[in-house]
Backbone:
């Protein structure tokens, strides 16, 4: 049996939106992409807790101190005929790294995926993040090297949408 964790996990509420945004900004700094964060508290409140929540958030604390978060949503596999769970973001504040919190968050999401009948649990990692890649591979995760992610944003997204 693993030792008791000093961390507690809980589902986020609308009152947690400022902390969620702080975690997003912290992750963006770590990923060298702070200039790409345009999320606001208002946008997060609507997209996470509005009429059609697009994602869920699990927050981690040590005592009363925020330690990290995971933001995830469901996708779907036509090949499996089942939903999947997609981890969009996982962030642990620097002072809590190396203490098992990342693994605890991933294990929590894996448990949710199994409980919800998901056929897979997926996420993306930047190719330069060798520490994260090693960590994920040690868990048994496999890189999907045959797949390339494509993305439409900004003007390209607007142009294609105009055709519809």
Residues:
């Amino acid at each position: 049996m693993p030792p008791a964790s000093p961390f507690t996990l809980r589902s986020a509420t609308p009152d947690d939106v400022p902390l969620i945004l702080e975690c997003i900004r912290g992750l963006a700094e770590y990923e060298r992409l702070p200039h790409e964060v345009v999320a606001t508290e208002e946008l997060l409140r609507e997209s996470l807790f509005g009429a059609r929540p697009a994602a869920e958030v699990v927050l981690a604390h040590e005592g009363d101190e925020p330690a990290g978060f995971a933001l995830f949503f469901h996708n779907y596999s036509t090949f499996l005929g089942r939903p999947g769970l997609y981890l969009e973001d996982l962030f642990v504040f620097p002072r809590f790294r190396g203490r098992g919190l990342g693994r605890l968050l991933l294990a929590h999401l894996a448990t949710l995926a199994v409980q919800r009948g998901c056929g897979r649990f997926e996420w993306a990692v930047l190719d330069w993040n060798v520490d994260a890649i090693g960590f994920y591979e040690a868990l048994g995760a496999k890189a999907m090297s045959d797949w390339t992610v494509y993305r439409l944003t900004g003007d390209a997204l607007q142009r294609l949408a105009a055709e519809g």
